[in-house]
């Protein structure tokens, strides 16, 4: 079985995001970019499936600017076998919408015929939480979202999902789209020898046009603003003072 | 212009607070029809009919809809979509599971976690863990939208909508439910509670989390946690507050032993009053706290619990 893992290049989760003064978006010039943290978890899970003998090939895919090849090299260094880069934008500030990403992924799935797609639950830049579900709809496949446990067993997979009420376990028919949550695993670090080896692994370059997908956004970004800042608070010196302040504020 | 709202129904019961908050947002878009789907949904339908702003309720009862599985639920909504310009829901994990699937079936984008309605095509939503607010204008013929409930007030309960029973769509039979692990609790629900007390890694163990729970019970509060506390097994996953957990905006939020990473702030910084208890005076949580107490939580929390008596 082949595993397909879509990985997105996003602003590193440690970077403090700044909104551009002209309201046109956030400033991504010269900031550290990394693989979306959820996608690292997906790559790790894919490699574990291969290590467990349940998968024989792990293919990482990224859609976006040319620099996304760095993200793919990271996936390869972690242990993915090969990668596909779909260049669909030439400016880091252009985000490809989940619907367009899902359409490109569908075309790749049709070509590659993976038995499972492991995506992240959410990209930490647009916070959409949509691509896996959309791909699943386009393919007519089952979906197991927000997975914190995954057990692939022949023609079905058991997925434990993190939901508002706690945990839900479902059984999905294969092939399936799984989106992974934070507690599924702890991704490995790429070792230096593996980083070197990754440079030689195959990385195919394509464009959105190769798949006949129109990536024109459906949502026009009218403006981007900073959220309202909170008024500065105070430090209290003791529990007594805290209780007093809370009473004054009518909070208790 | 008609709006179809997927009501939040769990085990036949309507989650009134989440649904009523989404109705407030949806009513800005047009006439709201609430869809209650489940193996049993009639009682939920009756409850939804009382929400002010709901003009009609559709009840779909079918075994395939029983555990909010995405595929049959999305198929049902897509089959109804012809009559509506907007398809909306509160931004719960259920809706996040279902709505993008519906949107793709309709070949439109989904607009997740909307915090403000500008007009029928234009919405505000937080991005980058709430560090920026983006206004987007949809060019799609249908808008599929989830509403962040913490930013809308619940609609009242004096309504009397008509209730109609409908059938399910054909079940794609792609997945089946195995089990739910839900911890029963007498505490208020996290996303609707007026007071939330949350513990972080600083609490140190599952046993010590009892300190947080005792303080919460004294305040009639819900209990929350940081990701680190959940990852470490001190608290269950459904207590996680943050970018990838629940978003809360209570009147009072007490953060104990939480450093205040942006991913945590994303889930609580719209709270009215924020209290932080942390032994590190440099902790970023103090930058958003109205009242900060630099102290060891193992001294401060028992003392606070006692003095709130
Ligand atoms: C993709 C992604 C998504 C994430 N989503 C979320 C999310 O939804 N929610 C979330 O919370 N985090 C999330 N995180 C994690 C986040 O980045 C932080 O790692 C996490 O919030 C830290 O939790 P913490 O504050 O409990 O732990 P720490 O950062 O370790 O802080 C512990 C604090 O406790 C204090 N402390 C220790 N002992 C005591 C004591 N005895 N008395 C008083 N204070 C004490 C310390 O001074 C410290 O400030 C996410 C991260 C990523 C990468
Ligand atoms: N441009 C992209 N390239 C590759 N994978 C993507 C891209 N956008 C989204 N994904 C995948 O879809 C998941 C969810 O993203 P989103 O729906 O944007 O929140 C991510 O974690 C990735 O696995």
Write out key terms for the chains shown:
heterodimer, A: 252 residues, alpha/beta, Rossmann fold, nine-stranded mixed β-sheet, two-stranded antiparallel sheet, B: 309 residues, seven-stranded parallel β-sheet, five-stranded parallel β-sheet, binds flavin-adenine dinucleotide, binds adenosine monophosphate
What is this structure's SSE topology?
The complex is a heterodimer of chains A (252) and B (309).
Chain A: E1 2-6, E2 9-11, E3 33-35, H1 37-51, E4 57-64, H2 68-78, E5 82-87, H3 98-112, E6 116-120, H4 131-139, E7 142-153, E8 156-163, E9 166-173, E10 176-180, H5 192-198, E11 203-207, E12 219-225, E13 234-236, H6 239-248
Parallel strand pairs in A: 1-4, 1-6, 4-5, 5-11, 6-10, 7-10
Antiparallel strand pairs in A: 2-3, 7-8, 8-9
Chain B: E1 2-6, E2 9-10, E3 13-14, H1 16-26, E4 31-38, H2 42-49, E5 54-61, H3 70-80, E6 86-90, H4 93-105, E7 110-114, E8 116-117, E9 122-127, E10 132-138, E11 143-147, E12 162-166, E13 175-182, E14 195-199, H5 209-219, E15 222-225, H6 227-231, E16 252-256, H7 262-265, E17 273-278, E18 291-294, H8 297-307
Parallel strand pairs in B: 1-4, 1-6, 4-5, 5-12, 6-11, 7-11, 14-15, 14-16, 16-17, 17-18
Antiparallel strand pairs in B: 2-3, 8-9, 9-10
Helix pairs in contact in B: 3-4, 5-8
The structure holds flavin-adenine dinucleotide and adenosine monophosphate.
Flavin-adenine dinucleotide sits between chains B (200-202, 226-229, 240-245, 257-259, 261, 263-264, 267, 278-280, 283, 296-298) and A (13, 37, 124).
